[in-house]
């Protein structure tokens, strides 16, 4: 069996029926409409989507449901595109609206189909549950906001596992937390929040549902700071045991997902210039987009214990690379 055209990342050569493509996005007013899958034939990126987007910044793939989510703050909504794969060629269908009245820069989806995203301008960490997506409910839920939690400060990159949501702060990270880990389903009471009801949540377009912490549980009961080492960070991704994230300049960090001490953060690499999004392939490799170097890089991330100075190699060229995601399917 052959998986061509495709890119086989480091450490995954044993599963020859597994085909992997990198999806990258570049944030530029001239080329912002391009989302590109990477193929192994010389690292050439080919256009997947070239219309309907304005200023895309983040990507997330739901492989089970064959859907690509795109975070584009210029749209004022969260959107997705159905994916299809035929003879190794990936194609995207028409744009679909998932959530309205939001300015989304980063998005993540879990195995169940719950979609989480950050609204940096309104200081909110939000979600649309799998059931809401299935029922066509486009009013998002506000799970964590700066009005209730000091750990929400211009939230940026976001990632999920089965029980927790992880996000990076792009302001005051060394004070309130660079990387925050929160329960996906905290003890809550549901409050309807509208633009005229600012006591519950701030929403500038349409309605939202605010999930407020029950007073008896305390404001911080659902949140844990995993790192406090950087003021402003962009992209976060999860391997089986670790979380990796990028700062504004040069650095890629790693920390155990169960970290309890601040000194557990490891600088994986200082070889970047403007690292942005990152993605894990579910096997052994993490991909990092570097906006200044105009490329997507990769490194082996299947270590049990984090260590500095990991070898970083170029996976593909992409002008102004910003967001990155991984799409995997079985070979025909």
How is this structure best described in words?
With 332 residues, this protein is mainly beta. Helices cover 3% and strands 45% of the residues. The radius of gyration is 19 Å and the shape is globular.
Label this structure with key terms.
332 residues, mainly beta, five-stranded antiparallel β-sheet, globular
**Secondary structure: helix percent:** under 10%
Roughly what fraction of the amino acids lie in strands? 35-45%
Which whole number gives the mean pLDDT? 82
Radius of gyration, in Å, reads 19 Å
Which secondary-structure class do the elements indicate? mainly beta
End-to-end separation in angstroms reads: 7 Å
Q: Which strand order spans the largest sheet, edge to edge or round the barrel?
A: 8-9-10-11-16-15
Described by its quaternary structure, the protein is single chain
Strand and helix order:
EEEEEEEEEEHEEEHEEEEEEEEEEEEE
The total strand number stands at 26
User: Number of helical segments?
Assistant: 2
The coarse silhouette is globular
Uncertain spans: 1-17, 29-42, 194-206, 214-219
């Amino acid at each position: 069996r052959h998986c061509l055209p495709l890119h086989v990342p480091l450490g995954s050569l044993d599963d020859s029926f597994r085909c992997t493509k990198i999806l990258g996005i570049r944030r530029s007013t001239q080329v912002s409409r391009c989302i590109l899958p990477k193929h192994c034939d010389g690292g050439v990126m080919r256009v997947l989507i070239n219309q309907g987007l304005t200023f895309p910044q983040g990507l997330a793939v739901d492989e089970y449901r064959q859907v690509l989510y795109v975070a584009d703050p210029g749209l004022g909504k969260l959107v997705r595109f159905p994916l299809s794969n035929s003879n190794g060629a990936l194609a995207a269908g028409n744009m679909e609206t998932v959530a309205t009245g939001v300015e989304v820069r980063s998005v993540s989806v879990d195995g169940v189909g719950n979609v989480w995203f950050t609204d940096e301008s309104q200081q909110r960490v939000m979600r649309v549950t799998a059931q809401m997506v299935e029922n066509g409910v486009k009013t998002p839920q506000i799970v964590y906001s700066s009005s209730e939690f000091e750990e929400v400060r211009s939230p940026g990159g976001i990632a999920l596992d089965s029980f927790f949501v992880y996000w990076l702060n792009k302001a005051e990270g060394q004070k309130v937390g660079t990387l925050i880990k929160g329960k996906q389903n905290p003890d809550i009471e549901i409050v309807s929040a509208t633009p005229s009801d600012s006591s519950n949540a701030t929403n500038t377009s349409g309605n939202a549902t605010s999930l407020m912490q029950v007073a008896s549980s305390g404001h911080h009961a659902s949140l844990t700071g995993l790192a406090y080492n950087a003021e402003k960070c962009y992209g976060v991704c999860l391997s089986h045991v670790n979380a990796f994230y990028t700062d504004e300049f040069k650095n890629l960090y790693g920390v155990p997902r169960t970290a309890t001490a601040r000194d557990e953060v490891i600088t994986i690499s200082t070889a970047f210039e403007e690292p942005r999004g990152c993605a894990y392939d579910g096997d052994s490799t993490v991909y990092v987009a570097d906006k200044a170097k105009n490329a997507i890089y990769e490194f082996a991330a299947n270590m049990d214990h984090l260590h500095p100075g990991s070898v970083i190699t170029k996976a593909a060229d992409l002008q102004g690379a910003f967001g990155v995601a991984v799409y995997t399917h079985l070979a025909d």
